[in-house]
Automatic annotation (TrEMBL):
Name used for this protein in its record: GNAT family N-acetyltransferase
Keyword tRNA-binding: no
CDD domains given in the database record: NAT_SF (cd04301)
Source taxon at top rank: Bacteria
UniProt keyword list: Acyltransferase, Transferase
A Pfam family of this chain: Acetyltransf_1
Annotated TM spans: none
GO MF entry, a single one: acyltransferase activity
Organism the protein comes from: Paenisporosarcina macmurdoensis
Keyword Acyltransferase listed: yes
Length: 237
């Protein structure tokens, strides 16, 4: 049984996410985390970022972690209908005339001013991670939302590693000048439709506990609070 999802980039970072199973005792999670932490120290990566239950916070801080933030997870079934918007055109990066450089610029615009505190990566690292984590066909996962022929948002729906039908959003966002107009809720709903088309049966999304705007988007689109976790980080000395 897999207790942690681990994404590694040699000599740069490890991203570790606790996979919660109700039948697994906390002690077993801590034992496996201790092994992972030892391996990370030996690997000499710059840092490890951990997403985990906050009940273990005292132990984590004692090991040299510092707390970045707390996140909330929301989930919903994808058995409903997610109708397209008549004035929004959706195209995948693989099928569009947009090149990787312009897509990166759109991504960066959408990320600007984010209320989430766990902004670990530069845009160069983000673009590298797309291929590393999604594979050679990553451009087919990247979608651009156009209105009146202009890109105003984007979304990257994926199936969670280690699952067959749990949908996630690697990222989705709206350009700054189009915010506060309801497009966040629309693009999130359209993204759920994209996940359903990828044969996802459910969706799980997360955001910083203080990102009230994103929490409202989750709730408007039928998602319910599933869990809360802490984000912790440790650097090599």
């Amino acid at each position: 049984m897999t207790l942690y999802s681990v994404i590694k980039k040699d000599h740069e970072y490890w991203l570790v996410d606790q996979i919660k199973h109700s039948e697994v005792p906390n002690e077993r999670y801590m034992q496996e985390l201790a092994v992972l932490l030892s391996e990370w120290h030996e690997n000499q990566c710059k840092y490890l970022s951990l997403l985990m239950d906050q009940e273990n916070e005292t132990w984590l801080l004692g090991q040299g972690f510092h707390k970045v933030s707390s996140i909330v997870e929301y989930a919903c079934s994808l058995d409903g209908d997610f109708e397209a918007e008549a004035d929004i055109d959706i195209e995948s990066l693989a099928e569009s005339d947009v090149d990787d450089e312009d897509f990166a610029k759109l991504y960066e615009r959408c990320k600007s001013g984010s209320a989430n505190k766990n902004n670990l990566f530069t845009m160069k690292q983000v673009m590298e991670s797309l291929e590393n984590e999604l594979g050679y066909n990553w451009r087919s996962n990247c979608h651009i939302f156009n209105k009146d022929g202009q890109p105003i948002g984007m979304s990257i729906p994926v199936i969670e590693n280690g699952t067959e039908d749990e949908g996630r959003l690697f990222y989705f966002g709206v350009i700054p000048e189009m915010r506060q107009k309801g497009f966040g809720t629309i693009f999130h709903r359209l993204s759920l439709g994209l996940l359903k088309n990828m044969h996802a049966a459910s969706y799980v999304g997360s955001t910083d506990e203080n990102n009230v705007h994103m929490i409202h988007i989750f709730e408007r689109n039928g998602c319910n609070l599933r869990d809360e976790k802490g984000i912790y980080r440790i650097n090599q000395e």
